[in-house]
Amino acid sequence: MSNRRQRAGRDHSDECLMARYASGDTEAFDQLFRRYERRAYVFFLRRTSSPQRAEDLYQELFLRIHRARDEFDSGRVFTPWFFQIAHRLLIDDLRRAFRAREIGAIDFDAPAAIPNTEAAVADRQEVEFLLDILSPEERYVVVASKMEGIGYPELADQLGKSVDAVKKMASRALQRIRSEASSADPLEAAAG
């Protein structure tokens, strides 16, 4: 492959396109949009089973990408960053839906009907702490594969890696999480 072709390929990488968009090149965003619009829509459709919600979330995702364009580090891989934003958007949407159902179901005249969420908050904080020891790419692979049920072949495609490389990344990340969780002092965790 000639140097000109290699340079042209790099100029059209997702990372380069995002860096160009952050610098004001709207054509670069159009190219990224075309590359990722179907994947984003399918990502949300698989998780919501609602074409309307998937459409709304996918539009919101690209709005968030627009807002976060200056925060993108062009030295990192674009795909995990993109799907991490998508994942957070999905979680926000699920929380809104849950709160709407929860508020509608609470009988405000009966104090016992208000759920005790202290243990759930503590569990969530522990999970967040354990996930924070991972790199963004490792965190994405673990959350997507183990919590959302995305298969390794799909993740490999998204990340531009082999299936074996993604499996190894997930395995090593889970091993680090288990090691950290087993070494944590239960009394210290309860006090924190």
Please describe what this structure looks like.
By secondary structure, the chain is mostly helical. The chain has two domains: 10-112, RNA polymerase sigma factor, region 2, helix turn helix motif (Rna Polymerase Sigma Factor, Chain: A); 116-192, Arc Repressor Mutant, subunit A, CATH 1.10.10. It is built from ten helices and no strands. The protein has helices spanning 3-11, 14-22, 26-48, 51-67, 78-105, 118-132, 136-147, 152-159, 163-183, 186-191. Helix 4 (51-67) crosses helix 5 (78-105). The longest helix is centred in the middle third of the chain and has 28 residues, at 78-105. Residues 1-9, 102-116 and 185-192 have low confidence and may be disordered.
What low-confidence regions span 5 or more consecutive residues with pLDDT below 50? 1-9, 102-116, 185-192
The CATH homologous superfamily of the largest domain is termed RNA polymerase sigma factor, region 2, helix turn helix motif
**Please, how many domains?**
2
Number of strands: 0
Q: Which CATH architecture of the largest domain? A: Orthogonal Bundle
How would a crystallographer describe the biggest sheet? none
Question: What is the end-to-end distance?
Answer: 56 Å
Q: Supply the number of helical segments.
A: 10
Q: Remind me, CATH topology of the largest domain?
A: Rna Polymerase Sigma Factor, Chain: A
Which secondary-structure class do the elements indicate?
Answer: mainly alpha
Mean pLDDT: 77
Give the helix proportion (percent range): over 70%
Q: Radius of gyration, rounded?
A: 20 Å
Strand % is: under 5%
SSE arrangement, N to C: HHHHHHHHHH
In the CATH scheme, the class of the largest domain would be Mainly Alpha
- Note the overall shape: globular
